[in-house]
Design goal:
Number of strands: 16
Helix content: 10-25%
Radius of gyration: 20 Å
Distance between the termini: 65 Å
Order of helices and strands: HEEEEEEEEEEHHEHEEEEE
Strand order of the largest sheet: 1-2-3-11
Strand content: 25-35%
Mean pLDDT: 76
Oligomer: single chain
Length: 266
Protein backbone atom coordinates (compact mmCIF):
# COMPACT_ATOMS: atom_id res chain seq x y z
CA UNK A 1 0.00 0.00 0.00
CA UNK A 2 2.78 2.40 0.99
CA UNK A 3 4.71 1.51 -2.14
CA UNK A 4 1.67 2.28 -4.30
CA UNK A 5 1.24 5.72 -2.69
CA UNK A 6 4.93 6.51 -3.18
CA UNK A 7 4.70 5.60 -6.86
CA UNK A 8 1.70 7.88 -7.34
CA UNK A 9 3.48 10.76 -5.62
CA UNK A 10 6.56 10.21 -7.75
CA UNK A 11 4.40 10.19 -10.87
CA UNK A 12 2.79 13.51 -9.89
CA UNK A 13 6.19 15.08 -9.15
CA UNK A 14 7.55 13.98 -12.53
CA UNK A 15 4.51 15.40 -14.31
CA UNK A 16 4.95 18.74 -12.54
CA UNK A 17 8.64 18.86 -13.45
CA UNK A 18 7.79 18.01 -17.06
CA UNK A 19 5.22 20.82 -17.26
CA UNK A 20 7.62 23.33 -15.73
CA UNK A 21 10.28 22.36 -18.26
CA UNK A 22 7.83 22.82 -21.10
CA UNK A 23 6.85 26.23 -19.76
CA UNK A 24 10.45 27.36 -19.44
CA UNK A 25 11.27 26.06 -22.91
CA UNK A 26 8.33 27.83 -24.53
CA UNK A 27 8.97 31.17 -22.87
CA UNK A 28 12.77 31.38 -22.89
CA UNK A 29 13.05 33.22 -26.20
CA UNK A 30 12.18 36.82 -27.01
CA UNK A 31 11.76 39.08 -30.02
CA UNK A 32 14.84 40.61 -31.66
CA UNK A 33 17.20 38.72 -29.33
CA UNK A 34 19.95 36.35 -30.51
CA UNK A 35 19.04 32.78 -29.56
CA UNK A 36 21.19 29.68 -29.17
CA UNK A 37 20.47 28.78 -32.81
CA UNK A 38 22.13 32.07 -33.83
CA UNK A 39 19.03 33.80 -35.17
CA UNK A 40 16.89 36.61 -33.76
CA UNK A 41 13.19 36.26 -34.56
CA UNK A 42 11.64 39.70 -35.08
CA UNK A 43 8.11 38.31 -35.39
CA UNK A 44 6.50 34.91 -35.71
CA UNK A 45 7.78 34.35 -39.27
CA UNK A 46 10.86 36.55 -39.89
CA UNK A 47 14.39 36.64 -38.49
CA UNK A 48 17.92 38.09 -38.66
CA UNK A 49 21.14 36.08 -38.39
CA UNK A 50 23.54 36.67 -35.47
CA UNK A 51 26.88 35.26 -36.70
CA UNK A 52 28.02 34.53 -33.15
CA UNK A 53 27.43 38.09 -31.97
CA UNK A 54 25.17 39.19 -29.12
CA UNK A 55 23.20 41.47 -31.46
CA UNK A 56 21.53 40.43 -34.73
CA UNK A 57 23.01 41.49 -38.06
CA UNK A 58 20.32 43.57 -39.78
CA UNK A 59 21.79 43.58 -43.30
CA UNK A 60 19.40 40.92 -44.56
CA UNK A 61 15.97 39.91 -43.25
CA UNK A 62 14.95 36.28 -43.76
CA UNK A 63 11.43 34.84 -43.84
CA UNK A 64 10.06 31.39 -43.07
CA UNK A 65 7.95 29.77 -45.76
CA UNK A 66 4.17 29.96 -45.61
CA UNK A 67 2.89 27.81 -42.74
CA UNK A 68 6.22 27.83 -40.87
CA UNK A 69 7.21 29.78 -37.75
CA UNK A 70 10.51 31.14 -36.44
CA UNK A 71 11.69 29.12 -33.44
CA UNK A 72 14.70 28.75 -31.13
CA UNK A 73 15.47 25.29 -32.50
CA UNK A 74 18.27 24.29 -34.89
CA UNK A 75 15.96 24.08 -37.91
CA UNK A 76 14.95 27.74 -37.27
CA UNK A 77 11.68 27.49 -39.19
CA UNK A 78 9.29 24.75 -38.10
CA UNK A 79 5.77 24.04 -39.22
CA UNK A 80 3.25 26.03 -37.18
CA UNK A 81 1.94 24.02 -34.24
CA UNK A 82 -0.76 24.70 -31.68
CA UNK A 83 1.33 22.95 -29.02
CA UNK A 84 4.50 24.97 -29.65
CA UNK A 85 4.55 28.76 -29.69
CA UNK A 86 6.98 30.60 -31.99
CA UNK A 87 9.99 32.28 -30.36
CA UNK A 88 8.53 35.70 -31.01
CA UNK A 89 4.82 36.06 -30.38
CA UNK A 90 2.07 37.19 -32.71
CA UNK A 91 2.40 40.47 -34.59
CA UNK A 92 -0.95 40.31 -36.37
CA UNK A 93 -2.44 43.02 -34.12
CA UNK A 94 0.53 45.39 -34.33
CA UNK A 95 -0.51 48.82 -35.54
CA UNK A 96 -4.18 47.78 -35.73
CA UNK A 97 -6.67 50.24 -34.24
CA UNK A 98 -9.40 47.59 -34.49
CA UNK A 99 -7.50 45.43 -31.97
CA UNK A 100 -8.73 47.78 -29.23
CA UNK A 101 -12.46 47.55 -28.50
CA UNK A 102 -12.95 51.33 -28.53
CA UNK A 103 -10.31 52.06 -31.20
CA UNK A 104 -8.53 54.37 -28.77
CA UNK A 105 -4.99 53.34 -29.62
CA UNK A 106 -2.84 50.80 -31.45
CA UNK A 107 0.11 48.92 -29.96
CA UNK A 108 3.14 49.46 -32.21
CA UNK A 109 5.51 47.24 -30.18
CA UNK A 110 5.67 45.71 -26.71
CA UNK A 111 6.06 49.11 -25.08
CA UNK A 112 5.08 51.72 -27.67
CA UNK A 113 1.68 52.88 -28.88
CA UNK A 114 -0.02 55.45 -31.07
CA UNK A 115 -3.46 56.99 -30.69
CA UNK A 116 -6.32 56.15 -33.08
CA UNK A 117 -9.10 58.50 -31.93
CA UNK A 118 -11.71 56.07 -33.27
CA UNK A 119 -10.12 55.91 -36.73
CA UNK A 120 -8.76 52.97 -38.70
CA UNK A 121 -5.14 54.10 -38.65
CA UNK A 122 -2.96 55.26 -35.74
CA UNK A 123 -1.75 58.83 -35.97
CA UNK A 124 0.28 61.46 -34.15
CA UNK A 125 3.15 61.15 -31.71
CA UNK A 126 4.47 57.77 -30.63
CA UNK A 127 3.90 57.02 -26.93
CA UNK A 128 6.09 54.97 -24.62
CA UNK A 129 4.96 52.77 -21.72
CA UNK A 130 6.81 53.20 -18.41
CA UNK A 131 9.48 50.67 -17.50
CA UNK A 132 7.91 47.36 -16.50
CA UNK A 133 4.71 48.03 -18.46
CA UNK A 134 3.51 46.73 -21.83
CA UNK A 135 0.93 47.94 -24.33
CA UNK A 136 -2.32 45.99 -23.91
CA UNK A 137 -5.14 46.40 -26.43
CA UNK A 138 -7.55 44.55 -24.14
CA UNK A 139 -7.45 47.48 -21.71
CA UNK A 140 -8.43 51.14 -22.05
CA UNK A 141 -5.47 51.98 -19.80
CA UNK A 142 -3.10 51.51 -22.78
CA UNK A 143 -0.15 50.30 -20.67
CA UNK A 144 -0.49 47.63 -17.98
CA UNK A 145 2.00 45.96 -15.68
CA UNK A 146 4.07 43.40 -17.58
CA UNK A 147 3.77 41.00 -14.65
CA UNK A 148 -0.03 41.30 -14.59
CA UNK A 149 -0.61 41.12 -18.37
CA UNK A 150 -1.38 37.55 -19.54
CA UNK A 151 -0.66 38.39 -23.19
CA UNK A 152 1.27 40.91 -25.26
CA UNK A 153 -0.74 42.55 -28.03
CA UNK A 154 2.24 43.33 -30.26
CA UNK A 155 5.20 41.10 -29.47
CA UNK A 156 7.87 43.24 -31.10
CA UNK A 157 10.80 44.84 -29.29
CA UNK A 158 11.08 48.47 -30.39
CA UNK A 159 14.60 48.90 -31.86
CA UNK A 160 15.00 52.34 -30.24
CA UNK A 161 14.81 50.74 -26.78
CA UNK A 162 18.28 49.26 -27.17
CA UNK A 163 21.56 50.93 -28.05
CA UNK A 164 22.47 50.97 -31.71
CA UNK A 165 26.24 51.20 -31.37
CA UNK A 166 26.78 47.46 -30.86
CA UNK A 167 24.42 46.63 -33.71
CA UNK A 168 26.30 48.98 -36.03
CA UNK A 169 29.63 47.38 -35.10
CA UNK A 170 28.25 43.89 -35.64
CA UNK A 171 26.77 44.93 -38.97
CA UNK A 172 30.09 46.36 -40.18
CA UNK A 173 32.23 43.39 -39.25
CA UNK A 174 29.91 40.70 -40.60
CA UNK A 175 28.42 42.21 -43.74
CA UNK A 176 31.07 40.55 -45.89
CA UNK A 177 29.97 37.10 -44.72
CA UNK A 178 26.22 37.59 -45.10
CA UNK A 179 26.01 36.17 -48.63
CA UNK A 180 27.91 32.96 -47.92
CA UNK A 181 26.17 32.27 -44.63
CA UNK A 182 22.70 32.80 -46.10
CA UNK A 183 23.17 29.84 -48.44
CA UNK A 184 23.48 27.46 -45.49
CA UNK A 185 20.29 28.45 -43.69
CA UNK A 186 17.38 26.03 -43.21
CA UNK A 187 15.66 24.69 -46.34
CA UNK A 188 12.33 25.60 -44.76
CA UNK A 189 13.15 29.31 -44.93
CA UNK A 190 13.54 31.75 -47.79
CA UNK A 191 15.51 34.96 -48.32
CA UNK A 192 14.51 37.70 -50.70
CA UNK A 193 18.05 38.51 -51.82
CA UNK A 194 18.72 39.17 -55.48
CA UNK A 195 21.80 39.58 -57.66
CA UNK A 196 20.45 42.85 -59.04
CA UNK A 197 18.31 44.39 -56.28
CA UNK A 198 19.14 43.94 -52.62
CA UNK A 199 16.07 43.77 -50.35
CA UNK A 200 15.84 46.78 -48.07
CA UNK A 201 15.59 46.48 -44.30
CA UNK A 202 12.66 48.22 -42.56
CA UNK A 203 14.95 51.09 -41.50
CA UNK A 204 16.23 51.53 -45.05
CA UNK A 205 12.69 51.63 -46.43
CA UNK A 206 11.62 54.23 -43.89
CA UNK A 207 14.72 56.36 -44.46
CA UNK A 208 13.23 57.10 -47.89
CA UNK A 209 9.88 58.23 -46.41
CA UNK A 210 8.97 61.63 -45.03
CA UNK A 211 5.77 60.77 -43.15
CA UNK A 212 4.82 58.06 -40.65
CA UNK A 213 2.52 55.28 -41.83
CA UNK A 214 2.32 51.77 -43.27
CA UNK A 215 4.36 50.96 -46.37
CA UNK A 216 5.04 47.84 -48.48
CA UNK A 217 8.29 45.92 -48.12
CA UNK A 218 11.02 46.33 -50.77
CA UNK A 219 10.68 44.25 -52.82
CA UNK A 220 6.95 43.90 -52.23
CA UNK A 221 5.78 40.68 -50.58
CA UNK A 222 4.18 38.58 -53.36
CA UNK A 223 1.88 36.99 -50.75
CA UNK A 224 0.70 40.43 -49.54
CA UNK A 225 1.15 39.46 -45.89
CA UNK A 226 4.07 41.62 -44.73
CA UNK A 227 4.31 45.39 -44.44
CA UNK A 228 6.45 48.02 -42.72
CA UNK A 229 5.41 50.62 -40.18
CA UNK A 230 7.51 53.80 -40.45
CA UNK A 231 7.60 56.38 -37.70
CA UNK A 232 9.76 59.31 -36.66
CA UNK A 233 11.69 59.33 -33.37
CA UNK A 234 14.12 62.09 -32.39
CA UNK A 235 14.01 63.38 -35.95
CA UNK A 236 14.98 60.03 -37.49
CA UNK A 237 12.66 57.76 -39.49
CA UNK A 238 12.82 54.09 -38.45
CA UNK A 239 10.75 51.03 -39.29
CA UNK A 240 9.42 47.76 -37.95
CA UNK A 241 8.10 44.91 -40.08
CA UNK A 242 4.69 43.44 -39.25
CA UNK A 243 2.58 40.58 -40.63
CA UNK A 244 -1.15 40.75 -41.33
CA UNK A 245 -3.41 38.44 -39.34
CA UNK A 246 -4.39 35.03 -40.71
CA UNK A 247 -6.76 35.23 -43.71
CA UNK A 248 -6.04 38.94 -44.21
CA UNK A 249 -3.81 40.65 -46.76
CA UNK A 250 -1.91 43.92 -46.93
CA UNK A 251 -3.53 46.34 -49.36
CA UNK A 252 -0.87 48.73 -50.68
CA UNK A 253 -3.37 51.27 -52.02
CA UNK A 254 -5.24 51.67 -48.71
CA UNK A 255 -2.25 50.84 -46.47
CA UNK A 256 -4.26 48.44 -44.30
CA UNK A 257 -4.72 44.70 -43.74
CA UNK A 258 -8.00 43.53 -45.26
CA UNK A 259 -9.91 40.28 -45.78
CA UNK A 260 -9.96 40.97 -49.52
CA UNK A 261 -6.99 39.49 -51.37
CA UNK A 262 -5.46 41.92 -53.92
CA UNK A 263 -5.49 40.67 -57.49
CA UNK A 264 -1.70 40.80 -57.81
CA UNK A 265 -1.08 38.55 -54.77
CA UNK A 266 -0.07 34.89 -54.94
Amino acid sequence: MVECVMKKRLSVILQVIFCVCLFIDSTSAACNVCQTNQVACINSTSFYLCFGESDPNMDTLYHCMEGFECTEYTAICLQASATRAPSCGSTSLCGQCTAQSNALFACMSRSTFQMCYGGLHPTGQLGYCPSGFVCDATSDAVCVSEAASPTVTCDVVDPTESTTSSTTTSSTTTSSTTTTTASSTSSSSTTESSTTTRPLTPNEVCAQKTTTGLYPTVPEDPYCKRYIYCRRSSGVMSGIEYTCATSTYYNVENAVCTIYKPANCI
